[in-house]
Amino acid sequence: MKSLRDALSFLTIIRFYSPDFDAVKALGSFAYVGVLIGGVLATINILLHGNFVEPVLILICWVTLTGALHMDGLMDTADALFSHRDRERKLEIMKDSRSGAMAVVVAILFLSLLNILLSKRSVTRWYILLCQHMQDLDLSGL
């Protein structure tokens, strides 16, 4: 239970006071938090079914609920990869809190792609809603 609480605190905006946060144990619960986030997004999908702003509202909820954690990593990576600098400078760019032009471009393209995929009425839509965070399974060793 503590590992799930720590994982929720790390991966979402939901905060629990934990003086003894253990990232290694929390890693085992990342997939469960991903399923929980996907379930929230799927519920929003069911409630707003057929509304033309539904995909945008789902994206807003996803980014808000996760505190844009995945977006931050994606944007830092884009800035570093497209900088055409040496390895040490790329690592410095990733640590920099400011976002560059390539980070903004990649974020817009990524959110646009998700919006298009969420607009489709197919199996792809449910896969995105329920399984988008399941890559954490690979990290947690489950």
How would you state the average pLDDT, rounded? 82
Low-confidence stretches: 136-142
Shape: flat
| Main sheet overview | none
The total of helices stands at 9
Distance between the termini: 16 Å
Beta percentage is under 5%
Q: N-to-C SSE series?
A: HHHHHHHHH
Account of the protein in words:
The protein is an all-alpha fold and 142 residues long. It has one domain. The chain contains 9 helices and no strands. The chain has helices at residues 2-11, 23-27, 30-47, 54-65, 69-81, 87-95, 101-119, 123-131, 136-140.
Could you outline the blueprint of secondary structure elements for this entry?
Blueprint: H1 2-11, H2 23-27, H3 30-47, H4 54-65, H5 69-81, H6 87-95, H7 101-119, H8 123-131, H9 136-140
Helix pairs in contact: 3-4, 3-8, 4-7, 5-6, 5-7, 7-8
Summarize the structure.
The protein is an all-alpha fold and 142 residues long. It is 70% helix and 0% strand. The chain is built from nine helices and no strands.
Features:
0% strand, 70% helix, mainly alpha, disordered C terminus, 142 residues
